[in-house]
Amino acid sequence: MLWPFAEKDPGICPDYKYYYNLAAGHFFILTINSAIMQNIDWGKLPFGYFQTDYNVRCYYRNGQWGEIEVSSSTHINIHMAATCLHYGQEAFEGMKAYRGKDGRVRLFRWQENARRMQRSADGILMARVPEELFHKMVKKAVSLNEKYVPPHGYGAALYIRPLLIGTGIQVGVNPAKEYLFMVFVGPVGPYFKEGFNPVTMQIVRDFDRAAPLGTGHIKVGGNYAGSLRASERAKAEGYASVIFLEAKEKKYIDEAGPANFYGIKDNTYITPKSDSILPSITNMSLMQIAEDMGMKVERREVAVEELENFEEAGACGTAAIISPIGKIVDRESGKEYTFGKKGQAGAWSTKLYNKLQGIQYGEEPDPHGWVSFVD
Ligand SMILES: Cc1ncc(COP(=O)(O)O)c(C=O)c1O
């Protein structure tokens, strides 16, 4: 490798090949030794970034999308006046590829992610990624990195991160004329270290995630930036995540951190309806499964006091699928709400989780046609 790069081992991980950028003064990882493939402990993967071999990219210029490009670089080269850096023209998606017992790799309801990304694009005036382009690029990113799709039986999956950013230059507040859509992937384990064991969450009243008529219903970076202070504080205080309330009246539950909330009472699955929560594809699927299992489903405002009557509660999303909630503490009043037996997920939550994962991993029939194959 030519100057200014030098191979150097900082002694962090023997599986990576590290290079030092002498000019910029920092390390970066360029390649992974093939040995890492044998070293991946599929059962102990965290939920985090994991470098794989390729990502795919496509640029929107002069009013149209170009050709799909494959890259092995982990970096993107963008102009310093790109709108994603200044005015938050950025949206992303989160989805997973699951390997079935038969070895085949499955996507789950990719169309919903494609459509949600279009709604995100519309919401902050970015170019829409056509559904077919989205599908092609997701499939390509997964197949090029197929060896990183965890084997069946470890509860792990290949996380897929589609990302759309404004790359066009603006200094006045205007939408860009150019965009980059890219997809990268990496194997992941459970989102919460507790896995499918109950977590404790904290209701906050001194922070809002999203404004009532703002961007809470779409998946744009600003919402997550806005949630960081509350969620880091909650973690420091010993909680897995924050429960955000609807911002206007502070009476109703909005979201459980980066996941939707549900409660269960009298065989009824109850989940908040609000204009400032992200419509979760996992939640949408759980509502259908709950109905299929004979439960009643209610999507409506959920007042905080109702928590007292819930037999079970959970957070749901692609990352955790379901994270059962054992206890919720209202930070302001100190009031505590507990659900189910200590340390145990509730019966309905367990059934819903097993059914949904069964469909995703191809172990259960797929009556609604949610699963499609990558190959
Ligand atoms: C704020 C927020 N709510 C809910 C979800 C869950 O959505 P999904 O089930 O589509 O992953 C996510 C994750 O994408 C999220 O970031």
Defining key terms:
D-amino Acid Aminotransferase, Chain A, domain 2; single chain; 21% helix; alpha+beta; binds pyridoxal-5'-phosphate; D-amino Acid Aminotransferase, Chain A, domain 1; nine-stranded mixed β-sheet; nine-stranded antiparallel β-sheet; 375 residues; 7 helices
Q: Please, could you describe this protein's structure?
A:
It contains seven helices and 21 strands. Residues 29-35 have low confidence and may be disordered. Helix 6 (281-292) packs across helix 7 (347-360). The strands form three sheets. Strands 4, 5, 6, 7, 8, 9, 10, 11 and 21 form a nine-stranded antiparallel sheet that branches. Strands 12, 13, 14, 15, 16, 17, 18, 19 and 20 form a nine-stranded mixed sheet that branches. It starts with a strand and ends with a strand. Helices cover 21% and strands 30% of the residues. The chain has 375 residues and is an alpha+beta fold. The structure holds pyridoxal-5'-phosphate. Pyridoxal-5'-phosphate binds next to helix 6.
